[in-house]
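ok posting inputs for the 6-O-phosphono-alpha-D-mannopyranose job
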Amino acid sequence: MMSLMQPFAAQLQFQNGLIEPYGEKTVRRLSDMRGMYLDIAVTEELLKQGDPLLYEVYEVDVPHEQGQLIYCTSIIYPGKVGDEYYMTKGHFHNKESTAEMYLGLQGRGYLLLQTHEGQVSAMEMVPGTVAYIPPFWAHRTINIGGEPFIFFGVYPGDAGHNYGTIEEEGFAKLVVEKNGKPVLIDNPRYR
Ligand code: M6P
Ligand code: ZN
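and the output
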């Protein structure tokens, strides 16, 4: 007889985003994102002084298979590289026809999205925002506040992450601080 996967639950702490038990924990530092911020000189300068922690992702251990739902929390710390706020790498899904959902838990962020055809979308995320990332949209999150920006995410088990396209082309828009406020500007290095 085929043995079915057993039901289970994890416990999520809304205040700090910790979810337990978790399987994989991803930690991204500035050195993992060389070349992704516009100001390369500032990036290299910061790296000489240390290697700041930008964000962490706690993923619950679910098989990466069709039919499953992967869920995780992401914690993006407050900070900037030059004028550009700390952000995730951003990705398309390997299986591009898969969607994703985010729920804001703490802090303030932007969800930046774009398609291969050059459509762009951006929305603010605060606690309680439930954002829907449709199939075929690349997505990146950005902390635009002074405290950790924490959100919960769910996506299909067979979605996969494609970072290559974003690493090569970047996002069309950047989120930078101007006069103390976040603004979207065109990425001069896009494509
Ligand atoms: C969200 C989800 C994860 C993703 C994480 C960090 O939690 O979309 O799948 O890994 O953000 O983003 P990235 O993988 O682009 O660095
Ligand atoms: Zn995704």
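notes: The two ends are 53 Å apart (CA to CA). The mean pLDDT is 97.
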